[in-house]
């Protein structure tokens, strides 16, 4: 099993040796490697069983460092990141040649982010290379929001897990592309669209797929647990049902008839930030409970982080019964 702890020197030396380290961020845990070392990056794809056509986000800790990896940073992108970095937003820009093709799946653009977590920021300040890091889950599965989630699923495959506790935001970063004229949100995430628009004006939002629909984080069916999962509204309540085998993920109040201990209430106070923080661990918990055979989920109000929550719910329930 991987070592798990808060030893930044150990995490650093594993990364310098070209090994994988799980890192905490405010959104979800990342599976990190030296982004400039192709052999190290290849280990990420292998450990996650991730197809090589799905590009990675590059993480660093200052705008000066970002400028080493990207061509010009447009004014609106600069405005956005000066307001929200370190934080849950990733920007997509034209890449410089120094970024290996493996990181970007051969695209001429690169996704970059300065994450907000004190341990990871300290680690990033102590290395002279950026970290390529997708979410630290097997491909297609729910993203990890605690070190224990990483340990359970990828523990054999990483040299070290930097334990930063539970993720404060709980859904992945919002990805904004500055490749064309207008900024475009490719993935809804931990920074609400409303907040982005307050700073850079109106943006376009891709609803179901990226400009590159082959990128799996944006694929219709993703973030899915292994069990049967469907929307509460689509569930056939007329068939014979064993209520003890049903688990629910509900916004602010439980469903009647279903045992309370089978139900996860995302936020008793209807707070969408709290709901986002709880979503992935709820999916994980119900997926692991042996007696539960079917997971039912409901949408939350479609505003603020609710849009990212609903996006993940749509993907988790797509093509699954
Ligand atoms: O919050 C997050 O963003 C987390 C933490 C660890 O930073 N990372 C994360 O990475 O969610 P990942 O690999 O699970 O999702 C990144 C998404 C992928 O769907 C990928 O297709 C997209 O970003 N992406 C990365 N580079 C891209 C590019 N050059 N063009 C289009 N999409 C890109
Ligand atoms: Mg992911």
UniProtKB/TrEMBL annotation:
<keyword id="KW-0819">tRNA processing</keyword>
<dbReference type="GO" id="GO:0000049">
    <property type="term" value="F:tRNA binding"/>
</dbReference>
<dbReference type="InterPro" id="IPR038385">
    <property type="entry name" value="Sua5/YwlC_C"/>
</dbReference>
<dbReference type="InterPro" id="IPR005145">
    <property type="entry name" value="Sua5_C"/>
</dbReference>
<feature type="binding site">
    <location>
        <position position="135"/>
    </location>
    <ligand>
        <name>ATP</name>
    </ligand>
</feature>
<dbReference type="InterPro" id="IPR017945">
    <property type="entry name" value="DHBP_synth_RibB-like_a/b_dom"/>
</dbReference>
<dbReference type="InterPro" id="IPR050156">
    <property type="entry name" value="TC-AMP_synthase_SUA5"/>
</dbReference>
<comment type="similarity">
    <text>Belongs to the SUA5 family.</text>
</comment>
<dbReference type="InterPro" id="IPR006070">
    <property type="entry name" value="Sua5-like_dom"/>
</dbReference>
<feature type="binding site">
    <location>
        <position position="143"/>
    </location>
    <ligand>
        <name>ATP</name>
    </ligand>
</feature>
<keyword id="KW-0067">ATP-binding</keyword>
<feature type="domain" description="YrdC-like">
    <location>
        <begin position="5"/>
        <end position="191"/>
    </location>
</feature>
<dbReference type="GO" id="GO:0061710">
    <property type="term" value="F:L-threonylcarbamoyladenylate synthase"/>
</dbReference>
<keyword id="KW-0963">Cytoplasm</keyword>
<feature type="binding site">
    <location>
        <position position="223"/>
    </location>
    <ligand>
        <name>ATP</name>
    </ligand>
</feature>
<dbReference type="Pfam" id="PF01300">
    <property type="entry name" value="Sua5_yciO_yrdC"/>
</dbReference>
<feature type="binding site">
    <location>
        <position position="187"/>
    </location>
    <ligand>
        <name>ATP</name>
    </ligand>
</feature>
<feature type="binding site">
    <location>
        <position position="50"/>
    </location>
    <ligand>
        <name>ATP</name>
    </ligand>
</feature>
<dbReference type="GO" id="GO:0006450">
    <property type="term" value="P:regulation of translational fidelity"/>
</dbReference>
<dbReference type="GO" id="GO:0003725">
    <property type="term" value="F:double-stranded RNA binding"/>
</dbReference>
<keyword id="KW-0547">Nucleotide-binding</keyword>
<feature type="binding site">
    <location>
        <position position="113"/>
    </location>
    <ligand>
        <name>L-threonine</name>
    </ligand>
</feature>
<feature type="binding site">
    <location>
        <position position="173"/>
    </location>
    <ligand>
        <name>L-threonine</name>
    </ligand>
</feature>
<keyword id="KW-0548">Nucleotidyltransferase</keyword>
<dbReference type="GO" id="GO:0005524">
    <property type="term" value="F:ATP binding"/>
</dbReference>
<feature type="binding site">
    <location>
        <position position="133"/>
    </location>
    <ligand>
        <name>L-threonine</name>
    </ligand>
</feature>
<dbReference type="Pfam" id="PF03481">
    <property type="entry name" value="Sua5_C"/>
</dbReference>
<feature type="binding site">
    <location>
        <position position="27"/>
    </location>
    <ligand>
        <name>L-threonine</name>
    </ligand>
</feature>
<keyword id="KW-0808">Transferase</keyword>
<feature type="binding site">
    <location>
        <position position="59"/>
    </location>
    <ligand>
        <name>ATP</name>
    </ligand>
</feature>
<comment type="function">
    <text>Required for the formation of a threonylcarbamoyl group on adenosine at position 37 (t(6)A37) in tRNAs that read codons beginning with adenine.</text>
</comment>
<dbReference type="GO" id="GO:0005737">
    <property type="term" value="C:cytoplasm"/>
</dbReference>
<protein>
    <recommendedName>
        <fullName>Threonylcarbamoyl-AMP synthase</fullName>
        <ecNumber>2.7.7.87</ecNumber>
    </recommendedName>
</protein>
<dbReference type="GO" id="GO:0008033">
    <property type="term" value="P:tRNA processing"/>
</dbReference>
<dbReference type="InterPro" id="IPR010923">
    <property type="entry name" value="T(6)A37_SUA5"/>
</dbReference>
